[in-house]
Amino acid sequence: MTQTRTFDPTQVRADFPILATNVWCKPLVYLDNAATAQKPEAVLQAIDRYYREQNSNVHRGVHFLSAQATREYEGARERIAAYFGAERDEMIFTSGATASINLVAQAFVRPRVGPGDEILITGMEHHSNIVPWQLVCEQTGASLRAIGLTDSGELEEFTFAANTKFVALVHTSNALGTVNPVASICARARERGIPTLIDGAQAVPHGRVDVRELGCDFFAFSGHKAFGPTGIGGLVGRSTVLKDMGPWQGGGEMIRLVTLEKSEYAAPPARFEAGTPNIAGAVGLGAAIDYLDALDLDAAAAHERDLLAYATDAVKAIEGVRVIGEAAHKAGVLSFVMEGAHPHDIGTILDQEGVAIRTGHHCAQPVMARYRVPATARASFAFYNTREDADALAAGLHRVRELFN
Length: 405
Prior knowledge:
37% of the residues lie in helices and 17% in strands. The chain is of the alpha/beta class. Helix 2 runs antiparallel to helix 9, helix 10 runs parallel beside helix 13 and helix 11 crosses helix 13 (387-404).
């Protein structure tokens, strides 16, 4: 697609204007990437250019601006699909991973399950990959089962039940950083004819994902985690599966023919994109994927692994700190608790030092219950972070320790 550029964290940081910001008269140390990642200049320019020079509705207009907007929108779809190893018509624009999962839950799973059937998830899911399945179970009489977690934050051994009809699992945990063996799980499910969905929101920012290699039927992701805009994301679905799905929402764009008696639906992906889409968001997401595609992602991932190991050692050396989630395969998430200090207090004190982290249950309350903590402090890293950022985190935590002693 695009020519790969040599990865240099210092040069990469210069691509993100907000990283030069001062907070409380101190340089910003942004370690809240699992909540939302920052945006490179290329994404900001793409969104600005669309609104300044191309703004129009897409698809049915015959005038110049509409044709230009349509070309940008559909061009983004084509490039994003290719990035994930999919075909153009397998890429559906949604408002994010949450909307993508709900689409699958209501349009694919709900019509196919009933009393006595089981939907299988894991105990480390984000709420967005729990609640939609609970709703389906309430609507259909199906049951929900979760794979348990080990003390280190990995999935326990499990088997599929005879009545397992669908599997939905997270690729990379937002609360623990665990990278799950999703390809092998999808292969096991496929042998039994069980469809699968992967929540890839946290995986996309940390390396290239090929949906064919994963072997899943559906892959959900969010743009804002992947250095793109908020309010945009996607669902990559296997074409043979999408063709057999009815729509989730009705309205303009998703139809082929409408009479007062009956409607005929468009082919995918239009069938699942009712109404005026987030055109600027799609353009910005396309620019974010172009940016990622131009990076040496293997080198970026190696940098993140080194940074996570360095930060983990520094944080664990602080008196009273316990790391939550020490799986053998992790992405750049470091969750921890400190004896005598509530995570919200930790976050507040770190903020005064210019260090931005996330505190709370991280929309993963079952994870908190599993490890018997009400909340954690979470530092999450991206390829633009450095060892100096990790040093600032550790220094801030020493300050917390001093205050609470």
